[in-house]
Amino acid sequence: MTTIKRIDPRRPFVIAASGLKRITLGEERAGDAADAAMFAAPLGAHAPAPKPKRAYEAGVRTLLAVAHSDRGALDEHARQALAAAAILADARTEVALLVFGELTDDAAALGADKVVQLPLLARPAFAPDKTLAALCDCVDAFAPAHIFMPDNATGDGDLGRRYAARARASIATHVVEIDAEHVGCYVDAGRAFATRSLPDVILLDPEAVSAKLPFVGAGEAVALRTDGAAERRHDAGRYADRGTAQLDAAQVALEEADFIISAGNGVTDIAAFETLARTLGAAIGASRVAVDNGHFTRDKQVGATGKTVNASVYIAFGISGAVQHLQGIKDCRHVIAVNLDASAPIAKRANLTVVADAQSTMRALTDAVGEAKQGGHSHAGAAASTNVREGLAA
Ligand SMILES: Cc1cc2nc3c(=O)[nH]c(=O)nc-3n(C[C@H](O)[C@H](O)[C@H](O)COP(=O)(O)OP(=O)(O)OC[C@H]3O[C@@H](n4cnc5c(N)ncnc54)[C@H](O)[C@@H]3O)c2cc1C
Fold this sequence. Notes:
This protein is an alpha/beta fold. The chain has 2 domains: 13-30 and 52-232, HUPs (Rossmann fold, 3-Layer(aba) Sandwich), CATH 3.40.50.620; 249-393, 3-Layer(aba) Sandwich (Rossmann fold). 29% of the residues lie in helices and 21% in strands. It has 11 helices and 17 strands. It has helices at residues 28-39, 76-88, 128-142, 156-167, 229-232, 270-280, 288-292, 323-328, 346-349, 358-373, 379-393, and strands spanning 13-16, 19-22, 61-68, 93-100, 114-118, 146-150, 171-175, 177-178, 182-187, 192-197, 201-204, 220-221, 259-263, 283-286, 313-317, 334-339, 352-355. The chain has a 7-stranded parallel beta sheet with strand order 7-11-6-3-4-5-12, sandwiched between helices. Strands 14-13-15-16-17 form a 5-stranded parallel beta sheet. Strand 8 and strand 9 form a beta hairpin. The chain starts with 12 loop residues before the first strand and ends with a helix. Residues 264-266, 287-290, 301-306, 318-320, 322, 324-325, 328, 338-341, 344, 357-358 line the site of flavin-adenine dinucleotide.
């Protein structure tokens, strides 16, 4: 399945390692090939090209990319901000990455030469002053020439603005065009385009930069040495983090649910399915056929003409995996299929396929989870959780 991105007619290009790359529908591969050719090592006939490591002279100049991770990964927007730094880095510049939260991605493959992880300042924790203090410490440590961040509404955009205000740094927001000399963004409600020389802080809009790099960075993990000076500059106790509230999974909008179980035409025992959802604390989704059959309301439909979901775990019971359904789960991290047919299309997308009857699997899972919750780990419970873990690791 090819995914063709919607194109903003005013932005017919993105910035890639090979320079401005014109977006032409269906021709993305040609552009990628041009990028790869710039740095490519000689290839074996069939071997995928190992990407060369970008060479640089350490300790001369640093570009710093900063982003929050989401469940251990950088999203595409954050990767683009890091790629912008890597693309603009010359042979005397190293690229440092500061991640708020854990990072299980390969930072070298994303273009970073040095990586600082701050797992205690992950996104769910509301600690704007500590986050700002940590960024100040990191800037003190690396003295970057420029800071690159995704201009998002989930923490990074706010942090970049707060940093610029505190450090009295120059800043450009909603940047859609960038090269080694200038940044550009739309102003006046999109009626005009403004450019300026590279400021200290660059907050990038999505899709301004291609995250595909023809090289890798050094990816060296670095501990951030902090004497707490930056943190002491901030007043403590001006606000309290009241934590996050636990919502009933059924109340969460499907698009926001992190754990979804979904029923298709192969699910006949709807009561058992709903019991399992309650037991697991999972939100409910359904295929179009299951909705058309009247088993679920239309707002539960996942797919091209339903909801696009973004769960960490998506369990599809009795769903064949038609292309329209797969479109709705393309952003899910782990897909588990339960299907009588091992050759159903969903098996190609799934990280784990359980070839079994949906009804008996749902009942076994409900029993296993119920027993585990009561503290008694039965043999069945242990077996069920082992299977799921094996699948996720695969
Ligand atoms: C324009 C258009 C838009 C569409 N939009 C959507 C959409 O948004 N979302 C969507 O889902 N579909 C959509 N569809 C429909 C889509 O093409 C499929 O028809 C639909 O997804 C099939 O649903 P299903 O997999 O539940 O049913 P089926 O195709 O009937 O598959 C049932 C599956 O369950 C398995 N099975 C059967 N019995 C059992 C059992 N006892 N235990 C375990 N497994 C069992 C079977 O092996 C099979 O793989 C759209 C179609 C069109 C034309």
